[in-house]
Amino acid sequence: MAEQFDVIVVGSGVAGLSTALAARGVRVAVVTRGVIGLDGASAWAQGGIAAAIGPGDSPAQHALDTLKAGCRRNHKAAVRWMAESAPDVVRWLVDIGAEFDHIGANLALAREAAHSFPRIVHAGGDASGAEVMRALRSAVELASHIKVFERSQVRELIKLNQSVVGVAVQGAARADGEAEAFELYAPHVVMATGGIGQLFLNTTNPPECDGSGLALAHRASAELNDLEYIQFHPTALAPQQPGQGEQLPLITEALRGAGARLVNEQGQRFMLSLHEAAELAPRDILARAVWTQMERGHQVYLDARMIGDAIRQRFPTVVRSCQQRQIDPRSELIPVVPAAHYHMGGIKVDLHSMSTVPGLYAVGEVACTGVHGANRLASNSMLEGVAFGRALGERLARMPKTARIPPVGLGIWREPNKGAPISEAMVFARLRQLMWSTAGLMRYEDALESAVDQLQLLERRCLAGAKVLDQLLVGRLLVSAARKRTESIGAHSIQPRRPQVSGQAAA
Ligand SMILES: Cc1cc2nc3c(=O)[nH]c(=O)nc-3n(C[C@H](O)[C@H](O)[C@H](O)COP(=O)(O)OP(=O)(O)OC[C@H]3O[C@@H](n4cnc5c(N)ncnc54)[C@H](O)[C@@H]3O)c2cc1C
In which domain, by residue range, is 106 found? Predict the structure, then answer.
């Protein structure tokens, strides 16, 4: 099967759906791995969306805070444009039906770390992403210009004369277990495939966030940028068994804002001696401190007992996650680990979201617009997804249409032969462990060097066409980028070799 559209959007998170909705008037295909509005990281977002709409605040101040968080490695024009667009982004989301929290007639604004003003628009307390995605999904269901392909994975970008002209898709599995393969064609293909947290052992990201969009773009010769900048969140709920690969629930930093403290199993509040702001220090400093404690053999906990009963109203998502583990945060300590959370790098795009390959665009977490620089300011990523996605959708809707379907059979993805010499699940587990221990919070040049060799070895043991090859490819590209950046900055911390410490490794 082959079908022609004006625009193909790969991914149905906040960035993909904003792009698709804004491209009103042209035929848009949305291809997504799961179910729209539910798969990807967007529905998990807790804090909300940053916008300078409070008294005394301004887009200029929002831009300045973003530049500071990004260690001024940001693309200044992109930052300025995004901060100026933010109030309109919130209005647009309200117009399509998002119900944000209010205080009286005004939108309630929360303050998050490194923001100079309260400027985070939120919904349902800490369920902002779920509400934004509910609204976007409802709007897409009513939009006649959009056709959705759910449970479908793009496995290859199709190129013709150096331009991307379509996608090869592995469709939903049939009753016999086989997946249908089909192609979609369009002059504009937008990658909105999200982040890469799943490449690390501990992550807050759901399973769809495994860097597949980066691999597709790289194989289509698009340039990738700043791959080494990964933000690690300091407090994810620790897995029940160390080393268990899964999406870990986020224990929001607003809990620390409400007074929660980081302690180790001996009750030591280790942040007091490390930073003047203690538990309110920047995310990367906290995350590295937690990692160091673990490297020394300690278990780290968040003590939120002082919040008392109020925790149930203020942090319902956190309470639910704890309850699932039989932890009562009103009377018990919450075990935490740092976890891969957000990717600042991605497909290199210009201010119009165009990649370096004609016909290929990128928005949201998979894109590197440069707005985040070397580290992301909290609650800027949902904003980035909507702001850039919406602007791109509107621009693509104005572009000339094309009716031509190129010959079928160009670079089409086919199901690889079964019976690989090594199981994909085993390779993926090894990759996540390797990435965590070598390209995680503390990086060492010698370990990165040997990680590249190990990743190449794993690649050689997989059959051509195996999905895990994409994940290995992105892992190798990231490790290579980390090796090249020999200066520690923002979220990237590197030393020549691992110092000798007593205690167990932070697995
Ligand atoms: C727990 C958590 C809390 C967060 N809290 C906040 C917050 O409060 N504020 C904030 O601004 N940011 C927050 N973030 C970050 C933010 O949620 C993400 O950066 C943002 O939602 C990414 O949106 P996206 O549309 O780019 O990607 P996603 O929402 O991740 O969507 C990616 C989509 O691509 C699809 N996809 C991937 N590969 C393929 C493929 N090959 N073929 C077809 N489809 C594919 C997936 O199925 C999915 O639909 C949080 C993240 C997490 C994990």
Answer: 2-227+344-397
